[in-house]
Write a structure and sequence with these properties.
The chain has a 5-stranded antiparallel sheet. The chain contains 2 helices and 5 strands. The chain is rod-shaped, with a radius of gyration of 24 Å. The protein is of the alpha+beta class and 122 residues long. 24% of the residues lie in helices and 26% in strands.
């Protein structure tokens, strides 16, 4: 290798360390955080989130894997949605990426999916 100045040698060393960090980050997928004193306490209202056991994701499978898929299965149905600001019920018109639209007492209501605590068919 050509003679490097001290500055060039340090830069090369930093670059190699950065490359090693990136390689280690990509190969090490074992990551967890344990918060023993925190209880999230999420009530999913009987909705099972996770694997359906057979690897299907709810798009034609046996169980939905998230709340959005549950809502997609209830399109054009009367639903009752519980949120931190109260219960909204009505005809589910649309399920978007981050919100739903339904008709409640003749008024269109938009609800952020992240704010939905439970959903039931009514």
């Amino acid at each position: 290798m050509a003679n490097l100045t001290e500055r060039q040698a340090r830069l090369l060393s930093l670059l190699q360390n950065l490359q090693n960090l990136n390689t280690n980050a990509l190969t090490n997928t074992d990551f967890s955080i344990d918060f023993p004193s925190i209880d999230v306490g999420i009530d999913l209202g009987g909705i099972s989130i996770g694997s359906g056991g057979n690897g299907e994701n709810g798009n034609g499978g046996s169980q939905p894997s998230n709340i959005r898929q549950v809502l997609l299965g209830l399109l054009n149905e009367n639903v009752e949605v519980a949120t931190p600001f109260g219960i909204v019920s009505g005809l589910l018109l649309s399920v978007q990426n981050d919100y739903i639209a339904l008709i409640d007492n003749g008024e269109q209501v938009l609800v952020l999916i992240e704010k939905i605590e439970t959903v039931n068919e009514s």
